[in-house]
Write a structure and sequence with these properties.
Blueprint lengths: L2 E8 L5 H14 L5 E9 L2 E5 L5 E3 L6 E4 L2 E4 L2 E4 L10 H8 L9 H8 L1 H9 L8 E5 L6 H8 L3 E5 L8 E4 L5 H9 L4 E6 L4 E10 L2 E4 L3 E5 L6 H5 L3 E4 L6 H17 L5 E9 L2 E8 L9 H8 L4 H14 L2
Parallel strand pairs: 1-2, 1-7
Antiparallel strand pairs: 2-3, 3-4, 5-6, 8-11, 9-10, 9-11, 12-13, 12-14, 12-16, 14-15, 16-17
Length: about 325
C-alpha cells in the first residue's frame, strides 16, 4: 500500500505565492507509483486539500485529516514547502509533532532559530563563524540613527528579522534614508536587523541529506542587476545565478565544508540553503533557509541538476527517510 503524502504549501506571509510554486513542483516530481500525493493549502483562515477540478476538502486541524468520497484520510507524512510563517518558523513543525505526523523539514526549535536572523547569527558567532556587524530593533524602540550608523556604517542593509524572499529589505546609503528603510522592514515584521555592508562575491550553497549522508551541492554565485539580491533579482530575472560559482577550488571546498558544519551545528534536517558573502577573502554568513524555494527557477533545484541528482530520486529518498525516522 502506498504512503499518503500531503505536500503543504501557501502560508501566512508574503511568500505564499512562491510557496505555491514550490509545492506544485514537488507534487509534479514526487513518484506517484510510490506515494499517494495530496496538495494541502495552508492559509490563515482556510486549510484544505485541493482535489480534482478545484474541489476543496477541508482539513480537520485536530488530526490533520480530510474526508474525501466518504472516506477519512490520514496522512503518513507531510512534505513541508511553506516558506515563512508557519512552515519555516517552527509553528507547523510543532503542531505536526504534537499530533505525531512526521514532516520533511527541520524540527520546531531548529526552524524557529534559523528563521530569526539575529538569533541564528548570535549562536554561530560563538563557533567562530564570521558575519556582518549588526544592530537590532523591536517595533516601538527609539531609533538612534547616530548609534546605528556608528556600529554598522554606510552603506548598510536594513532587513525584516523574520522574513524571506527579500521582503522588507533595503540597502541604505544615506542617514536620511535610514528611518524610511526601517519603517519598510517593520511593515513586514516587528523586529528589524541592520547589518554592515559586506563587499564581495555572494554565494549560495545547498546542503542535503541524501542516501544516508549530509552533503553540499555545487556552489552558486549570485550576480544581481539590482543593488542587491532582492525580490526582482530572485524571481523576476534580474540576476545571474552561476553554477558552479566563479571562485577558486579552495574557496569552493571551504564554503561547502562551512555549510555542512552550520547544517550540523544547528541540527537541521532534509535540505537547506546557506548564503554567504566572500568578503576580504573569507566567507561571511548571511542566513540559512530551512524551507528554501523549490520551483524550477529556484537555486537548490539547479544545484541538484548540476550535481547530477534527479529531483524524483532526491524527493523520494527524503520522504522515505522521514517515514523511517518517525
Amino acid at each position: 500500500m502506498k504512503s499518503k503524502v500531503a505536500v503543504v504549501m501557501g502560508g501566512y506571509s508574503s511568500e505564499y505565492e512562491i510557496s505555491l510554486k514550490s509545492g506544485n513542483f514537488i507534487c509534479q516530481e514526487l513518484d506517484q507509483s510510490k506515494f499517494d500525493i495530496y496538495r494541502a493549502h495552508i492559509f490563515k483562515n482556510n486549510w484544505y486539500v485541493m482535489g480534482e477540478q478545484g474541489k476543496k476538502y477541508p482539513i480537520d486541524k485536530s488530526d490533520f485529516s480530510i474526508r474525501m468520497d466518504g472516506q477519512k484520510i490520514n496522512f503518513d507524512c507531510v512534505f513541508n514547502m511553506i516558506h515563512g510563517n508557519p512552515g519555516e518558523n517552527g509553528l507547523l513543525q510543532g503542531y505536526l509533532e504534537t499530533i505525531e505526523i512526521p514532516q520533511t523539514a527541520s524540527n520546531f526549535y531548529a526552524s524557529a532559530l534559523t528563521f530569526n536572523k539575529r538569533d541564528c547569527i548570535s549562536v554561530l558567532k560563538d563557533y567562530g563563524i564570521l558575519a556582518a556587524e549588526n544592530y537590532f530593533l523591536h517595533k516601538g524602540d527609539p531609533i538612534d540613527e547616530d548609534a546605528i550608523l556608528k556600529k554598522v556604517g554606510l552603506p548598510c542593509f536594513v532587513k525584516a528579522n523574520r522574513s524571506g524572499s527579500s521582503f522588507g529589505i533595503s540597502k541604505v546609503k544615506t542617514k536620511a534614508a535610514l528611518k524610511p528603510a526601517i519603517q519598510h522592514s517593520f511593515d513586514e515584521d516587528d523586529e528589524v536587523i541592520i547589518e554592515s555592508f559586506l563587499e564581495g562575491t555572494e554565494v549560495d550553497v545547498g546542503v542535503i541529506q541524501y542516501q544516508g549522508k549530509t552533503q553540499a551541492l555545487p556552489v552558486t554565485e549570485i550576480v544581481s542587476e539590482n543593488e542587491f539580491f532582492d525580490y526582482e533579482a530572485k524571481y523576476l530575472g534580474k540576476s545571474q545565478e552561476i553554477t558552479p560559482a566563479r571562485i577558486t577550488p579552495e574557496q569552493t571546498r571551504e564554503v561547502q565544508e562551512l555549510s555542512i558544519r552550520i547544517f550540523n551545528l544547528l541540527r537541521l534536517n532534509g535540505f537547506a540553503r546557506a548564503e554567504f558573502i566572500y568578503h576580504k577573502g573569507k566567507p561571511h554568513f548571511l542566513e540559512i533557509n530551512t524551507c528554501p524555494g523549490m520551483s524550477p527557477a529556484s537555486i537548490v533545484p539547479k544545484q541538484l541538476q548540476a550535481a547530477g541528482i534527479a529531483y524524483m530520486d532526491f524527493f523520494t529518498d527524503l520522504v522515505y527517510r522521514t517515514l523511517q525516522n518517525s
